[in-house]
Amino acid sequence: MGFSYKGGSEELTDSVGLLISILVRYPEVSTVNFDPEKQLLKFTFIYSQVLGDNELASLKGKLLDSIEAYNLLEGKETLLVAINHNICDNLTMIEVQRDVQSLAQEEISLIVELFRQCLNSNLVTEENDRLIEEDAIAQEEIIEHMLQCIKGSVENKYLFAFREEGRVLVFNK
Question: Which pTM value belongs to this model?
Fold first, then answer.
């Protein structure tokens, strides 16, 4: 997946860089939003079929339990963890909302891995060459650094990022 930034006269902010890095590192994440007012990240995953109520409840339970256990082990208290879903045609879109203050890169990895394990081959994933291990580690370090930078920042742009044909696109709403 290539990277180029066309932002006119604007600089690449930490929040824009964070969204780009998340989508480059985790092809399972379909979209990611940043709400600077609420200091909130929203990750969207797409399941290629309609998930039943029991399957959704099981997935949500595993995600919430895992996030709670991770933060308990790290000695952190979460401000917001929310999981919502929408059915659109034959797809299930699952959104995980997390406050930036208590979020860490390792938790993002945990969430993505849970989706990978629970939804298997039906998780819609960008077709690309998997990052080699060194690149993956570098992306994770960038994500952690940018997460630290945006905690408590006073950015005012609501950002929306997604992939299209191997490129990451970021827009402000």
Answer: 0.89
